[in-house]
Write a structure and sequence with these properties.
Strand order of the largest sheet: 1-2-3
Structural class: little secondary structure
Order of helices and strands: HEEE
Bound molecules: iron/sulfur cluster
Distance between the termini: 41 Å
Number of strands: 3
Number of helices: 1
Length: 86
Amino acid sequence: MRKGDPDDPLLRQVLPVSQEALRVPGFVRDPLEEDVAIQTTGLIRKYRSRALLMVTGQCAVNCRYCFRRHFPYEDQRLSLRTGSIL
Ligand code: SF4
């Protein structure tokens, strides 16, 4: 990152900006339509030969463009205690 440059592309990847709060026509919180693909807690399966396991309660990066920004990671986290699918 270029120090002091608020438009540095690497910084913009993770820096929240006020424009994110604007209402934009067509915006949806679940653009990948994953809510309907949740098979059970911690398991998303949209395609026959693919599965996504949620093994952590959050993403370590939180990219500003992430399609899963509003995904309820904490609610969908696999847990040995709850016995989810393990
Ligand atoms: S899940 Fe989203 S926030 Fe996390 S690294 Fe991938 S794109 Fe970035």
